[in-house]
UniProtKB/TrEMBL annotation:
Spans annotated as Disordered: 471-495
Transmembrane annotation, as ranges: none
Entry keywords, A to Z: Coiled coil, Metal-binding, Zinc, Zinc-finger
Biological process per Gene Ontology, one example term: protein ubiquitination
InterPro entries in UniProt: BRAP2/ETP1_RRM (IPR011422), RING-H2_BRAP2 (IPR047243), Znf_RING (IPR001841), Znf_RING/FYVE/PHD (IPR013083), Znf_UBP (IPR001607)
Species per Swiss-Prot/TrEMBL record: Vanilla planifolia
Gene3D superfamilies xrefs: Zinc/RING finger domain, C3HC4 (zinc finger)
Domain RING-type: 179-219
Keyword Nuclease: no
Composition-biased stretches (Low complexity): 473-482
Protein name per Swiss-Prot or TrEMBL: BRCA1-associated protein
SUPFAM superfamilies assigned to the protein according to its UniProt record, in alphabetical order: RING/U-box
Amino acid sequence: MFASCTSVTPSSEEDGIFPTSSTYQGDLSAFPGTGRTQAVPFSSGNPRIEEIRGIMHLFPEDASSFYNPPVDRKSLVVVLAVPNHMTYADFCRFCGSFVQHMVEMRIVRSDGMDDQYSVIIRFNDQNSTDGFFTHFNGKRFSSLEVDTCRVLYALDAQYTRSIEHGQSSLVTSVEQPNCPVCLERLDQDDGAILTTICNHSFHCSCISKWTDSSCPVCRYCQQQPEKSTCSICGTSENLWICVICGFVGCGRYKEGHAIRHWKETNHCYSLELETQRVWDYVGDNYVHRLIQSKTDGELVELNFNCVHADKNCGTCECTGDSGISEALFNSKVEAILDEYNDLLTSQLENQRKYYEAMLQDAKEEDEKEISEAIEKAVRLRLQKLHAKLNKSIEGKRFLEDINENLLKNQEIWISKIRQIEEREQAAIVLRDKKIQILEEQLRDLIVHIEAQNAAADLPPAVSSDINCATALPGPSSSSPSGNTAKSVNRNRRRS
């Protein structure tokens, strides 16, 4: 187990990886291996209750490599620069199957790194330590992040001193003998033990079910709260917060956004974050009976006592009978309560009026923007419709011109078709006449040929008489039949 935070007796490595040294005075030669290692300071614990400081002796990165690990290394490694948004459960899931080989883990805070923490891990054997170093060194914590896991071998880690603060708490930082979750004893044989940054120990299997970033025992969160800044200019100096609406603005010695907020909203009370005192802008002074309680952080009244230390005080109202003083004090308290209630009521009423005016202005502005948007949309719609209408009119005119031209072309083509039809009719008539003449000539030729054939078959005397016979007149000489008859008569004369 880890050594107790409040223990002052040194212990060996078998008892824990954090032996407490009560003789450390800043000389690193008291620790082993300081000539071959680098000393890295760390701290743990709740800063409001108790803070424990120590030193880790780490081998340098050039000595802690995959192929050349330190010869005198131990089963102790340190995971540096783990992002604060990774909870204890996230880190246990990140380690995966190596958790069963771990003996203990301790979350510590590196000096100067508020947004990161370190984890010191001790394994049960050297093979598991080397496997963890080989597998996780240089590996990303997740695929969505650029931060990588940085693992270094550690020679030793020891406490140097413990700082106790004045504030008390119901939850102490002493290590609990039992796990606060399962109420079983924190025995190393039951599995790895994780000690949070506030020095509370749990079983890894139990803390893995705790998804919150705070400690299950004391609710201390390892994530540091964000620093307040001015809501207007973003400065972090001389800040004031309005006790009515919570507006954070800078003081009059910076940009004066806090007093400008009072002028705009009439919220006259503002709390100075550095001194926790309330300023009244109307009275232009501090209102000392409004302070912040250190227990719960609420605004409470400050009861004034007599400032005189001696018993012979006679210049103030603290003299006299204690019963009368108590009655006067109670009456003053009641008067202050009534005044404060009236003041709070008036401030809330002013706040209501202010926000109602803001809502009315916002409503009017929204209505104006809506009307302007509607007019703009209607105007754009009308412009588009007019453009579309003009385009349609132009298209209609174009179509009318095309239709008129088509009608004219139709008349022209109709007249041309009629002329062509008339020419075709005349050609057909002429062709029929030619055909008729050719048929007549062909008929005469056939008759003539038949006559010649018949004359050739008759006796010579008859054929000579036929040849000496006078030819009858036939068709005109212009016709082909006339030419044929002339040729027949010439043949006859020759014969």
